[in-house]
Amino acid sequence: MTDSAGASAQSATKPPGLRERMRATVRKEVVEVALRLFIEQGFDGTTVDQIAGEVGLSRASLFRYFGTKEDMVLQGLEETGRQIAEAFAARPDTERPWEALRRAFDVLTRTNEAAPEQALSYLRMLQETPSLRARHFEKQLSWQAMLEPEIARRLGVSADQPEEVGPNALSGAALACLDAAATGWVACEGAVPLAVLLDRAMGTLTE
Amino acid sequence: MTDSAGASAQSATKPPGLRERMRATVRKEVVEVALRLFIEQGFDGTTVDQIAGEVGLSRASLFRYFGTKEDMVLQGLEETGRQIAEAFAARPDTERPWEALRRAFDVLTRTNEAAPEQALSYLRMLQETPSLRARHFEKQLSWQAMLEPEIARRLGVSADQPEEVGPNALSGAALACLDAAATGWVACEGAVPLAVLLDRAMGTLTE
DNA sequence: GCGTTTCTGAGGCTCAGTATCAGATTGAGT
DNA sequence: ACTCAATCTGATACTGAGCCTCAGAAACGC
Predict the structure, then answer these.
(1) In percent, how much of chain B has pLDDT > 70?
(2) Residues whose CB is below 7 A of strand D
(3) Tens digits of per-residue pLDDT, B84-118?
(4) 3-state SS track over chain A
(5) Matching CATH topology for A10-69 and A75-206?
(6) CATH code for A10-69?
């Protein structure tokens, strides 16, 4: 910290907060440790104290970073949701919403096919652990909320209108297809590419 | 069984067990009490001890009837799922799967429109309580499992085949539409009939 | 009736999650 | 450089859900 004067230029360009970086670093390490332990010993077989001890943090502080145990491996999904929503909004207006959604999901297929074995063990843990699966659906609900405004725009209906169920239905159905594809992908151990399964799943709805 | 000879008809029709009826009665009362307390004080504001005390049961015994606190108001959904699956299987083969699913859901629209205010407060509680909402999705997953065999049959594909994502996608999408309709129904306080919202939701997918 | 099985209540236990409090660290103002 | 306010941390204690064990009481089969 004594070199803060000499590196003021550096610290000014990058870090709006010096403290913030420490937080980000800790967060990242917690996710790493938690992910490893969960896969090794199972989610329920791992206690929060164990994670805290391994990271070198008190349990109380750990809960200041992550509100729940599940969030330690699920919070990253919110960023993923944002990416999907962004990719969706970037699709041309000439595409039908369903097609645009399919293309937006390529954000996921690319990521998962990039590191298949890692993605498979992660998804397997998600599907095999009831509490994680439940929270996972919660996250997908937030994905729906992120997608709906753009869907409503493309459908030409106003959002925030209770009886306009179209955007909600469309986003929910698309995510259901995504889940179906992910389930199939895990079930066949990644033998069939995720993108193909997603094509089949979403294709079933349009026939 | 000693009277099986004389009253075999009676014992076979009504009481397979005398003890069983007590269990069913207790279960029913627990559901009643839990539902009332949850709506009055909120789900998180009600403790299991409180329910146990009001029913006149120990906490341990209560957990022998219901595995979790959520199950006390969610277990009934499994029976509902069976009814939907049954109604779905009863639809003529001439109907497309999507249409047949829509008709099967009328089991729900009828039930909910029969006692709207009760259904509304129940659904509102379900949507406003994170832990209940999460478990609710779990139940819907079991609905999917119940629907998939018949969907697979109608689609002419074999179930239990990992890469056959069609049935899973179709059932998931349909249930997503059901959720969208239910959400909208609660949001507009039941102003628009549930069946209408469901028509709109599922119609969005077929265009 | 009598043995067997099942159910019950009581008590203790683990673990997730929350609240409080005192001490340490950082960042801003001067 | 010094100080003050805000934030972060660890320690501790607490609530509540869920699990397990054990001894007694009920119901079932004979």
Answers:
(1) 92
(2) A 19, 22-23, 26, 56-61, 64-65; B 1-2, 17-19, 46-49, 59-60, 63, 67-70
(3) 999 999 999 999 999 999 999 999 999 999 999 99
(4) CHHHCCCHHHHHHCCCCHHHHHHHHHHHHHHHHHHHHHHHHCCCCCCHHHHHHHHCCCHHHHHHHCCCCCHHHHCHHHHHHHHHHHHHHHCCCCCCHHHHHHHHCHHHHHHHHHCHHHHHHHHHHHHHCHHHHHHHHHHHHHHHHHHHHHHHHHHCCCCCCCCCCHHHHHHHHHHHHHHHHHHHHHHCCCCCCHHHHHHHHHHHHHC
(5) no
(6) 1.10.10.60
